[in-house]
Design goal:
The complex is a heterodimer of chains A (300) and B (282).
Chain A (H helix, E strand, L loop, with lengths): L14 E2 L5 E3 L4 H14 L1 H17 L7 H21 L3 H24 L2 H4 L2 H6 L4 H17 L2 H11 L7 H28 L1 H17 L6 H5 E2 L2 E2 L4 H9 L2 H13 L6 H25 L3 H4 L1
Antiparallel strand pairs in A: 3-4
Helix pairs in contact in A: 1-7, 1-14, 2-7, 3-4, 3-8, 4-7, 4-8, 4-9, 4-10, 4-13, 9-10, 9-13, 9-14, 13-14
Chain B lengths: L2 E12 L6 H6 L5 E3 L4 E14 L3 E6 L5 H9 L6 E7 L2 E4 L12 H11 L4 H15 L14 H12 L2 E2 L2 E5 L7 H17 L2 E5 L3 H7 L2 E6 L2 E7 H19 L5 H4 L23
Parallel strand pairs in B: 4-9, 4-10, 6-8, 8-9
Antiparallel strand pairs in B: 1-3, 1-5, 2-3, 10-11
Helix pairs in contact in B: 3-4, 3-5, 4-5
Chain lengths: 300, 282
């Protein structure tokens, strides 16, 4: 058999690839990063589908698969919530919704951050063997996380439906809060994804610290527990409050969705804090992505 | 105007976490470049060529010569540390069969994954899927999870999908693999047709017959250094010289003559029986 085979082969003319892409390895780092991002976005169908497949993968050989995540959250909310609420003498119709939203937001946030290490490492085979852009793997990761986080929604709603708390959510604020919540988490996890691929220890450190952060962040307790006693503001605790509340990034990220969901005013610093965090994350991401994108393949 | 151009391409692989300086000193000089800040292994050293429409390049070399590295550099997976790769044209890479497949997803879903990753739309994938299933001869197996497929079945599906999309630039890394005799014949024909139809082909292979018949140009690599670039027959002769040199170095075990064309019809691992279940642990 040769290419000069006289026997005419019935050609099966099939789909031709749509776009002709000019590639030049010498192109500048910045333009390379931008075209990588652009190429990645163009393949939205693929990363969306793969993200969905990843969720289905957990489901296929299991009974419930990814549904276990919200289910365990639901159990936590409905077991730990009332228990802890009663112990502290909170009004359950206030506390359980507060706890549910805070806990879900915290789990989603840590899942984004600790999961980001998998974005490239999990795609190592594809990265080393195909010409897919790097951003493709970031988008796949983000899509996967967003879909996963949506599974929590029914659980978050249960206390609102069952306990019928006397509160009026700020719907517009909630919409904006959710958008900002995802935006800041995606920006942070993108930069961490590059960073974690190179420095594998840091991801361990982050994973180990999530339990600690959970306890020191106002999720199972109210900020007022720290600063108010017997109806009076304790001025001596300003420093402690500053440490665990005002300077705590998790607090502000959670507040983005928790405050409007409960119809409470957002802490005054939250918008500034989160805005600054987003900006730093975006600039940080584009800087390290531009500078180190080409090294990622060697780090895998 | 489709082209692939490599200008003086050199690739270094950094040795991550390799800090044993003493051991490095004992190594043959020149194998690794132990700089102050990082240690690296030179995988390609100054490779240049230019390909235009209708040119099919076969890369030959012993294990570790840099064949795969060169393909990866052309694909843009790795950026050369020196020199430049340029190309224009719709490209498909076939480095690893069954890449990116979901073992627990059905064959049909995997077909979709593959097509999407190559940048097709779902509608385009629907257009090819019927023909792909037919060529792969998987029949109703296409609805079963890939996990249940034998190695031969997986290959049949992968080849059927891959060859249903026609690129202008095709990069292949030794992938004509397993299958039963009958299917191998069918695949040969399909691949020949596919290769002939692609504008530019770069194929790395240990199979001299495939290189000789499928390519019109040859590039010989030895430890990352290009030895010859030109007509394929001359390239294979140059490769013989490389083998002879290696033999002389290592005390001459295998003569070059024995290697030539003895890989008659079916290469590596064709004995894999079809239908035999191979379990993959992803």
């Amino acid at each position: 058999m040769s290419i000069h085979d006289p026997e005419p082969v019935a050609l099966t003319p099939q789909v031709r690839l749509g776009r002709s892409h000019k590639y030049s390895s010498g192109e500048g780092r910045l333009s390379g990063a931008i075209s990588d991002f652009h190429e990645g976005l163009l393949r939205w169908r693929a990363w969306l589908y793969l993200a969905w497949m990843e969720i289905m993968r957990a489901k296929r050989r299991a009974w419930l698969g990814a549904v276990w995540y919200p289910l365990t959250l639901g159990v936590t909310v409905w077991v730990v919530g009332p228990l802890f609420g009663m112990m502290r003498g909170y009004d359950l119709s206030v506390y359980v919704p507060y706890f549910a939203v805070g806990m879900a937001a915290y789990q989603i946030a840590t899942s984004f951050l600790t999961g980001s290490g998998r974005a490239f490492i999990g795609g190592a085979d594809l990265i080393t063997n195909s010409a897919l852009p790097y951003s493709f793997f970031l988008f796949r990761f983000a899509a996967n996380q967003v879909i996963l986080s949506l599974l929590y929604l029914p659980v978050i709603l249960t206390p609102f439906v069952i306990l019928q708390p006397d509160l009026s959510p700020n719907w517009l604020g909630l919409m904006w809060g959710i958008v900002c919540f995802y935006a800041v988490l995606i920006a942070l996890s993108f930069s961490l994804a590059v960073f974690f691929t190179r420095f594998r220890d840091v991801i361990m450190l982050l994973k180990a610290s999530t339990r600690f952060m959970f306890l020191v962040t106002p999720i199972i307790w109210f900020v007022d527990d720290l600063t108010v006693e017997g109806g009076e503001e304790l001025s001596g605790r300003n420093l402690i409050r500053a440490m665990f509340v005002d300077a705590n990034p998790f607090y502000h990220v959670i507040e983005l969705v928790r405050a409007p969901a409960l119809g409470e005013p957002m802490a005054e610093h939250t918008a500034i804090y989160v805005g600054a965090m987003f900006l730093v994350a975006v600039i940080g991401f584009f800087t390290i992505f531009t500078l180190f994108r080409r090294r990622i393949v060697y780090w895998l | 105007m489709v082209f692939v151009k490599a200008e003086n391409v050199s690739v270094d692989y950094p040795l991550m976490g390799y800090k044993r300086r003493k051991r490095l000193k004992r190594m043959k000089r020149g194998l690794v470049d132990a700089g102050r800040r990082s240690t690296s292994l030179r995988a390609l050293d100054g490779v240049s060529f230019e390909l235009t429409e209708g040119q099919r390049l076969g890369i030959v070399g012993l294990n570790g010569a840099g064949k795969t590295t060169l393909l990866r550099a052309i694909a843009g997976v790795i950026e050369p540390i020196e020199g430049r790769v340029q190309r224009l044209g719709r490209m498909i890479t076939m480095f690893n069969i069954g890449l990116g497949t979901e073992a627990d997803a059905s064959g049909l879903e995997n077909l979709r994954i593959y097509g999407l990753m190559q940048g097709l739309t779902l509608r385009e994938i629907d257009e090819i899927s019927e023909q792909v299933v037919e060529f792969s001869e998987l029949g109703d197996h296409i609805h079963l999870p890939m996990r249940m497929y034998s190695a031969g079945m997986r290959m049949r599906l992968a080849i059927a999908v891959a060859t249903s999309i026609r690129p202008e630039i095709l990069l292949m890394d030794e992938w004509i693999g397993t299958g039963d005799q009958r299917f191998i014949k069918k695949v040969r024909k399909r691949i020949a047709e596919y290769v002939a139809d692609a504008g530019i082909v770069v194929l790395a292979s240990h199979n001299r017959k495939i290189i000789r018949t499928q390519c019109n140009l040859g590039l010989v690599l030895d430890a990352g250094v290009p030895q010859y670039f030109g007509p394929v027959d001359d390239a294979l002769k140059a490769f013989d010289a490389v083998i002879a040199k290696k033999d002389a170095e290592l005390g001459g075990a295998i003569g070059a003559d024995d290697l030539d064309e003895d890989d008659s019809d079916i290469e590596d691992g064709a004995s894999d029986a079809e239908g035999e279940k191979t379990h993959v642990h992803p």
